[in-house]
Amino acid sequence: MDFSYALTPFLAWLVAGGLKFVVNSLRAGKLAFGLIGYGGLPSNHSAIVSSTGALIAFKEGLAHPAFGVAVTLAFIVMLDASSLRRQVGKHAQAINTLVAHSPERPPLRERMGHTPLEITAGIAVGISVAAAVHGLPTWLAVQS
After folding, report:
1. Which Pfam families does its entry note (predicted)?
2. DSSP-assigned letter for residue 142
């Protein structure tokens, strides 16, 4: 069994999340534990799905059917992150403005979705992680 297919998306999530924490902390001027979540640079979702697609491309080739499935999944995830989830964030912002004077209602999370730059950064992280994993020794591939 080849564990690199399980390891790669996990590492992409870890690297993207770590980078996002650093970027948010630098922007905030303090440790940004409160900014962990949806949105931000780089996109964790884009890093995860692009790492899987890139690893399949590196190991199996672009003509492999699994690569086509991975690209399809990646497009769905990235379109969702850039359109639907960004709209949800905008709606949350508008709702928070409308109910700002309501003490019994906690504010909704407004940081949702990603900009094209955040998605592109996530893709770069995912491909980089996949390339690094692909270059690791073959001990990740346990022969049965």
Report:
1. DUF212
2. -
Identify the burial level of 143 via C-beta atoms within 10 angstroms of its C-beta, where 0-12 means exposed, 13-18 middle and 19 or more buried.
Answer: exposed
Please tell me the distance from the alpha carbon of residue 122 to that of residue 16, in angstroms, as a whole number.
7
**Cβ-Cβ contacts under 8 Å for 21 (sequence gap 6 or more):** 32, 36
- E strand segments, the chain: none
Distance of CA 41 to CAs 49, 69, 88, 109, 111, Å?
Answer: 16, 26, 18, 17, 12
141 pairs with which residues across the strands? 2
Give tens-digit pLDDT for 107-142.
777 666 788 898 999 999 999 999 999 987 665 554
Helix axes of 4-28 and 116-134: crossing angle, nearest 10 degrees: 140
Spatial CA neighbour of 74 closest among 35, 31, 130, 22: 130
Q: Rounded to an integer, what distance in angstroms lies between the CA atom of residue 133 and that of residue 110?
A: 35
Strand partners, 2: 141
2 phi, psi to nearest 5 deg: -100, 105
Rg (CA), the chain: 18
